[in-house]
Amino acid sequence: MKRSSVLAMETAADLTTPAFVFDLDLLDDSAGRARQVTQGAGCRLLYSVKACAHRAVLRRILPVVEGFSCSSPFEVRWAREIAPSTHSVHCTAPGLRPSDIYELVTICDYLSFNSLGQHRLAEHHEAPQAQYGLRVNPEYSLVSDDRYDPCCKHSKLGILPDELEASFSPGRKLPDRVTGLHIHSNCDSSDFGQLRETVRRLDRRLGHVLDQVAWINLGGGYLFDDSEAIDRLRECMEILGKGRQVEVFIEPGAGIVNDCGHMVSTVVDLLVRDGRSIAILDTTVNHLPEVFEFELMTEVIDAIQGEGHEYLLAGSSCLAGDLFGGYTFAKPLRIGQRILFAQVGAYSLVKAHMFNGICLPRVYTYCAESGLTLECQTDYDDYVRQLWDRQ
Ligand SMILES: Cc1ncc(COP(=O)(O)O)c(C=O)c1O
Fold first, then answer.
1. What would the CATH number be for the domain defined by 42-252?
2. Cα(253) to centroid of ligand 1, in Å?
3. What is the C-alpha separation between 367 and 373, in angstroms, rounded?
4. 219 lines ligand 1 (CB under 6 A)
5. Which CATH class name applies to 3-22+259-385?
6. Which is deepest, 55, 283, 286, 298, by most CB within 10 Å?
7. In this predicted model, what pLDDT tens digit does every residue of 363-379 receive, in sequence order?
8. In degrees, to the nearest 5, what angle opens at C-alpha 199 toward C-alphas 167 and 105?
9. Is the CB of 348 under 6 A from ligand 1?
10. pLDDT tens digits, residue range 329-365?
11. pLDDT tens track for 5-31
12. CA separation for the pair 111, 118 (Å, rounded)
């Protein structure tokens, strides 16, 4: 059993469920691995706040990363609140309003525009703090599901190379004040060979643009669990650095935070329907929305492969499709038993909602030194507030 599982099982009994538990020691492990790879390759590591923005997580990551990357004015403000001045704050997002752009140019260190039109809104700002970048779509598709694929057909993400070149001034120069480029084209990939190929194509297609920039942000979408990651990332750096002085950033989210998050729930009812056993939990897919959105099967600790007692794990909302999927256990489940979902640190807490009026999970952190700490719990007042009722 993984170290994470042991810790979570030991502590699960002491929790009020449903609960997210962030294992900070495991977070150190994942962030340390990312740091080792990026530092070894000579690349700057940022953390993408959108994956999990909890204060305790961001604070713990601070010593390992050089900054935070964000996708909205609120995320930028939050990152600024947490990050000391030694850390940089980066942002890219499609569809920013003029007022957002006005705010962002004054509080970000790096702001990458998703289109030339969005860049024009900032071009004449008198005193931007941010270095401007352009998000380029590398037109190299790596993800089979279009919903996750920034390079899918008709993608709204990034400026197309042809479009960028057509906008150039006669000297084939980038617009004034643009000092960097941003690309992001993958999702949950362990294969940095895919990033190398993306960079290779970018260099072939837009080498003369790369010659003009001081920095490039390679986006996120990569995990750091492959032993070849460091060599492949080094090769990316060699391609980008050939005859150039360019600072390279990478901004993973899930690759840093996913492994450390657990969802702990309790079986509240057992049913048999059409010959199938169903265990209803005190959580719901509202708490792990990607299980529903993307039909993900999440690892359940103590579930086994092969012969045993099979259950359909179901959530407690009125939605018929509020289901986690079929899992097999060595012994029959009983009411009151804990069910632990592992590796749900990314895109869960930030997307969780209160549909059906079901309370959000408590948030705990865990580390060997301090044990279990209750960080936050929501209550009826939070429910009323999120109904846009402030009376
Ligand atoms: C621009 C950008 N950077 C970074 C990320 C983080 O990706 P991940 O959490 O998959 O590493 C995303 C995710 O959507 C993104 O859109």
1. 3.20.20.10
2. 6
3. 9
4. yes
5. mainly beta
6. 283
7. 999 999 999 999 999 99
8. 50
9. no
10. 999 999 999 999 999 999 999 999 999 999 999 999 9
11. 545 566 677 799 999 999 999 999 999
12. 11
